[in-house]
Amino acid sequence: MKCKKGIILAGGTGSRLYPLTISVNKQLMPIYDKPAIYYPLSVLMLAGIDEILIISTPHDIQGMKSLLKDGNHFGLKITYKVQDKPRGLPEAFTLGEEFIDNEPVAMILGDNFFYGHGLSSTLLRAATDVTKANIFLYSVKDPSAYGVAKLNSQGDAMLDVIEKPKTYISPWAVTGLYFFPPDICEKAKNLEPSERGELEITDLIREYIKEDKVDINCFNRGYVWFDVGSPDALLQASNFVEVIQNRQDILISSPEEIAWRMGMIKKTEYIDLIKNMPTSTYRNSLQQTLEQ
């Protein structure tokens, strides 16, 4: 079954970014010239997903709505759900059960940033026929800070996933991007909280490993992934976007441009979006895409 639905989990306390997050949700903070949530939103759009549920806190949901509205201007249908208290990533699937409606669904964390040549093709392939859990991995220098995948000797299958291992397992960190088949809600409802009192995404993935229903995508050299939940990562992602955009004269993760190039909106609608923006660097960049 093709995946046409996606969830952006944009809640959390943003404690690693304190005091920046006292009044502003981290997903609304800038990565160079765009709000951080534009980047995971763009990933879902590049996968051909046009129905999106955004889950956030009671305090922050209105800011999300003010920014993204109903998504129609991007050729999307965006709806919203409140998560009153963080209880772990798998809760997204119980909160979003009505939205998912027994169909495949993608989930991406609102503070994740992906970039690389061929990313759209990889995402479109992953979304084409979601009969297994599709997990995206990225090789990192210090895997102990993440959920880490244990792979077989050929490196093409996941044998286990360990949350923040104290001993070295592999360099492959589980990123915040997942595609799950239609049974995801039932599996999420049957999970038990961990010792820290939360539902764990690693436990959810293990359920699919037991059934031999996991596909992996390893982002190798040439791809960039940031979890922008810390000041250093937020700055590094901003610097990366600034360098690529200004040196190569391209836009990274612009929902307006992606909507136009993916055929989600017409060229005339794209032009109108640009015309209705205030004068800004971002508007100028969008205008240049037309001239190119």
Topology:
Layout: E1 5-9, E2 30-31, E3 34-35, H1 38-46, E4 51-56, H2 61-68, E5 77-82, H3 91-95, H4 97-100, E6 105-109, E7 112-116, H5 119-128, E8 133-139, E9 147-151, E10 158-163, E11 172-180, H6 184-189, H7 201-210, E12 214-219, E13 223-227, H8 231-248, H9 255-261, H10 267-275, H11 281-291
Parallel strand pairs: 1-4, 1-6, 4-5, 8-12
Antiparallel strand pairs: 2-3, 6-11, 7-13, 8-11, 9-10
Helix pairs in contact: 9-10
What would you note in describing this structure?
The protein is of the alpha/beta class and 292 residues long. The protein is built from eleven helices and 13 strands. The strands form four sheets. A seven-stranded mixed β-sheet has the order 5-4-1-6-11-8-12. Strand 4 (51-56), helix 2 and strand 5 form a beta-alpha-beta unit.
Task: Provide a short characterization of the protein structure.
The chain has helices at residues 38-46, 61-68, 91-95, 97-100, 119-128, 184-189, 201-210, 231-248, 255-261, 267-275, 281-291; strands at 5-9, 30-31, 34-35, 51-56, 77-82, 105-109, 112-116, 133-139, 147-151, 158-163, 172-180, 214-219, 223-227. It is of the alpha/beta class and 292 residues long.
Which terms summarize this structure?
292 residues, 33% helix, alpha/beta, Spore Coat Polysaccharide Biosynthesis Protein SpsA, Chain A, 2 domains
